[in-house]
Design a protein that fits this description.
It is a single chain. The protein is mostly helical. It is built from 14 helices and 2 strands. Helix content is 73%, strand content 1%. The protein has a two-stranded antiparallel sheet with strand order 1-2.
Length: 296
């Protein structure tokens, strides 16, 4: 019964996020097809894990989920922009994303680049313009957290390291470092923003950050596994792309059994990080376990 309740909580959170994202560009003035391209990728589905973390950490820390919603939308916009750019021919050159043609396959490369750029900007517009009721110092702190995670010291830096690693041998430490930035930074910021909006203190933020960092690394290890053993229809994108791009992954370094052990270890560490929150962290602990066994 508890698992069913958490699954319902997950679906309710995803539905709330979908409605909020859908409304972000409502009533816009037509401008060529840039908004169509932005919405095409933003509303293409997905698990919405990052915005869920923002909302659920805010709830766990005693905050108002409604106040965290603009920041949840913002982090999903940044994640979507990164996927649009990641799929471009100059990067991973992918044709499918979430079971649909990638953005540049529909709108062309130039519009896809601009759609990504516009989503990055819209993220901060959304967070800053729709944050009424949130104390200004929390708004600034949350926006700064997101900006740091999205830039060269975070996600973009990780993407750069990932591209530089193609076709050459790298160590496990190298792979961990780049993935902590490429995948982990935005996941960590998503969670930490929820704590900030709720007014969490330094210790709370540190615990949430540890949770998200371990969760993010486990998420990436599982991603690497699915690129080898996953089902293309379930994943909504081609499998085997890492090997095709000559990328060293956790599977390359540890094998499938080693990856399974690492996912379990990291997930246990993520759950342990939330012990200071007691029962308020039950859903986030369940989510970490669920993501460890995901098939998509």
């Amino acid at each position: 019964m508890i698992g069913m309740e958490y699954e319902r909580q997950l679906r309710d959170g995803q539905a709330l996020i979908e409605r909020a994202l859908q409304s972000c560009f409502a009533g816009r003035e037509p401008m060529a097809n840039i908004y169509d391209a932005m919405e095409y990728s933003l509303m293409a589905g997905g698990k919405r894990i990052r915005p869920l973390l923002t909302l659920e950490v805010c709830r766990m820390c005693g905050g108002d989920v409604a106040q965290a919603l603009p920041f949840a939308c913002a982090v999903e916009m940044i994640h979507t922009y990164s996927l649009i750019h990641d799929d471009l021919p100059c990067m991973d050159d992918d044709d499918l994303r979430r079971g649909k043609p990638t953005n540049h396959k529909i709108y062309g490369e130039a519009t896809a680049v601009l759609a990504g750029d516009a989503l990055l900007t819209a993220a901060f517009e959304t967070a800053l313009e729709q944050s009424s009721g949130v104390p200004s110092d929390r708004v600034v702190a949350a926006a700064a957290c997101l900006a740091h995670a999205a830039g060269a010291r975070g996600m973009v830096g990780g993407q750069s390291l990932d591209m530089a690693a193609e076709g050459r041998a790298v160590t496990r430490r190298d792979v961990e470092d780049l993935q902590k930035l490429k995948t982990g930074a935005l996941l960590s910021a998503a969670a930490e923003m929820g704590c900030v909006i709720a007014g969490g203190g330094t210790d709370d933020r540190a615990a949430v950050r540890r949770y998200a960092q371990k969760l993010g690394l486990a998420f990436q290890v599982r991603d690497d596994m699915l690129d080898v053993e996953g089902d293309e229809r379930t994943l909504g994108k081609p499998i085997g792309s890492d090997q095709a791009n000559e990328k060293t992954t956790f599977v390359t370094l540890l094998g499938m059994d080693g990856c399974r052990e690492l996912v379990d270890t990291l997930t246990d560490a993520a759950v342990a990080a939330l012990e200071p929150f007691g029962g308020r962290a039950d859903f986030l602990c369940w989510l970490a376990r669920a993501l460890a066994g995901r098939e998509s």
